[in-house]
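Our platform keeps sequence and structure together, in a single record for each protein. This encoding replaces a full spatial description with a residue-level series of whole-number codes. We quote a single record here, exactly as it is kept in our systems:
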Amino acid sequence: MSNRVYVLAQFKAKPGKEDELFEVLKALEPDSVREEGCVQYIVTRQIDHPSATRNEYSIVFNEIWADGEAWAAHGRRFQIHNFFETQVQAENGLVEDVKVTAYTDEASDYDKPLYA
């Protein structure tokens, strides 16, 4: 059974702030990848491609955590709290909106017995 948590943190930058926001988010990578339980932590930018559609959330963190506790511990770090306070919640921050979603790679009934 896998306990991994797959996270997509999608960011919509304020107008004209996408490049600056990307650099601020990129600065979070080095320490985050060193955290216990971090499998992957990569900030990406949306590109134009004929097989893909575009949306307003043009910067995305693709994260993989060993389990839910590792992801929760990441969220308790000073750097992450500081980012959300200064860039998301603050009036003069770079982020217009953010969506954070978590996923599993298992079916909802993965451990269900075959016979009751």
Notes: Residues 78-89 form the longest helix (12 residues). The first strand starts at residue 5 and ends at 13. Strands lie at 5-13, 38-45, 59-65, 95-103. The mean pLDDT is 94.
